[in-house]
Design a protein that fits this description.
The structure holds two protein chains of two kinds. Chain A is an alpha/beta fold. Chain A has helices at 3-8, 61-68, 86-89, 110-116, 119-122, 130-142, 158-171, 188-203, 218-221, 238-241, 244-251, 257-263, and strands at residues 23-32, 35-45, 50-54, 76-81, 84-85, 93-96, 176-179, 207-211, 224-229, 231-237. Chain A has one domain: 3-Layer(aba) Sandwich (Rossmann fold), CATH 3.40.50. In chain A, 36% of the residues lie in helices and 23% in strands. In chain A, strand 1 (23-32) and strand 2 (35-45) form a beta hairpin. Chain B folds into two domains: 2-262, ABC transporter involved in vitamin B12 uptake, BtuC; 288-398, no CATH class. Chain B contains 19 helices and no strands. Chain B has helices at residues 2-6, 12-37, 43-49, 51-64, 72-96, 101-125, 136-139, 147-166, 168-176, 178-183, 188-206, 215-227, 233-256, 263-281, 287-311, 319-327, 339-359, 365-368, 383-393. In chain B, helix 3 (43-49) packs across helix 11 and helix 13 crosses helix 14. Classes of the chains: A alpha/beta, B mainly alpha. Chain A binds chain B through residues 66, 69-71, 87, 90, 93, 95, 97, 101-103, 106-109, 112-113, 116, 119-120, 122, 124-125, 152, 168, 178, 189, and chain B through 37, 39, 166-167, 169-170, 172-173, 175-177, 179-180, 182-185, 227, 230-233, 235-236, 365.
Amino acid sequence: MPLELAAKHGRTTAPADLGRSPLAIRGLTVSYGEKPAVFSVDATFAPGAMTAIVGPNGAGKSTLLKAALGVVRPLSGRVTCWGRPLARQRGRIAYVPQRASVDWDFPTRVLDVVLMGLYRELGLLRRVGPEQRARAVACLARVGMEGFAERQIGQLSGGQQQRVFLARALAQEADLYLLDEPLAGVDAATEKAIIAVLQALRAEGRTVVAVHHDLATVPDYFDRVFLINTTPVAEGPVAEAFTQANLQAAYGGRLATAQMGAVV
Amino acid sequence: MLWDALTLQLGYNATLVTVGAALLGIAAGATGTFLFLGKRALVSDAISHATLPGVGLAFMVMVAVGGDGRALPGLLAGSALSAGAGLLCVSALTRRTRLSEDAAIGAVLSVFFGFGVVLLTVIQSMSAGRQAGLETFLLGATAGMLWNDAVVIAAGGALVLALTVLLRRPMTLVAFDPGYAAAGGMDVRRIELAMMGLALAVTVVGLKIVGLILIVALLIIPPVAARFWSERVTRVVALAGAIGGLSGYGGAAISATAPDLPTGPIIVLVAFALFLASLLAAPGRGVLAAWLRHRRHRRRVHLRQGLLALAQGQPIYEALTLRLLRRAGYVRADGVATEAGRAQAAKALLDERRWQILRGDPAHEAAAARYDGLTPPERWLTPDQIAELDRHLGPEAVT
């Protein structure tokens, strides 16, 4: 981690060592059938930074996140969070899955979805009280959705659904936020709102890692980038790692020249 | 007669059956909701059919060790074991092979059921098996129900219900968003097995009353009916329990009014009647309500389009539009606009022009998203904002 970046976020960590990294992955391989979706990936995400995971379609971006969290089972590899096994640190990690991964006709209201972020804390028996409800409403307010608490989730637009998912993650008050394509198919207002929330999280010293598909906005939104195409291609501050050569290596012939223009 | 049955005055046996069926229905409805919401409803079909070989084997074992082959606890334990084996087969086939779940369900269901039928046939030929009456487990039989049987059913139903309430949060989360549940450290597979295990318990408990073929109906129909009435999981669960309980109670009572009415099938028919009522009459998701909403919307659209056509002097071809305009008093029988019609038409056109300005202005993005072609902009804007819009329109348009 370059020093000026560290200084910017009030941290003096040395180049990300395993013990400090909120998410360190070693030798991770996940196969669907007999084709590895990610192969032998080492990744050490910097604390207090906003990192974009970038790569072509089918490069294993989402799979990397899911395997890091144990949502899909890796064939090999080890994941540590702040130097300890993932299982011990679950309470400090919030995950925002892809919006399309759930059935939005499920009988539940917006507020109930946000309250799901507190299930871990509530356990099986404790009732949802006014304090929890107030916290959930506050999280909705942070994503600009406080007026929608009583709505059925099926009545929301795509961007609103994505904000509700983010609010659920906020309710966990985690230290590490992992987001799978949070900006895919959302309107411009939602994109702005989500990025503002993520940047606020970073300002509080929390770590944000997001799968991101829009190359043009990477330098504006993120301070670090992790390029992957089944195997890791490059990792580092945007200024150093988000180069034409690295992108060419990650995307091969699939990188449109228009996108390249946006990068350079 | 039916009143006597409903108020539990038809004697000891009928009362036992009615109360037992009500409890079973509540447990089945509540448990089935999570299967239904997790899109696993048909797994219960495999589970229930997989109970049959267990019934046969348990009978043979109990006779072989010299006991009473018909002891209900033994038969239920046997059926639970073989249903559990069937459940694990479905789960393993789905996870370890490329078979989809519906194919795995079909395979397991038919193989286990076939094996069960073979066992029952063998038992029929055994000397001890002649009077076993095991085939009553197919469709349920309540005629000879004993106090102990009722206690087993009541206790089992209550236990299942308690576990369902206890596990409602993990089961809701796994049904809605398994990826998020797993990321939070939940063992999704274990929760799913628990979900199906509860359905298994309901099936086993319900064998005596409803029988293995129809228990699926009691697991699926109440949640499907309840879903029409509510948009919240907790309420759907409670309503499904209520509908299941009502079906059990009502069905058992009706079947007690005549000697040859089968209990299980009548319970299912009562459940179906409640489903039908929900499908038709529920507000919001019900068919009738949806039809009425569609009709009202269509009328608004036609009326609006008709007014805009009047304002611009365009001909109106659609009969429905003309009829609506006439009925509202906006045009005369000969198709000429009335005084009121001209005023309304001018207003509709003004609304449309205001919207046009509004939607072309990036400053009004939020308001512009509300445009539906039907609602006047005053609905969303203050009089000051309207006046601002009208400045762009020019004076002659606003008169």
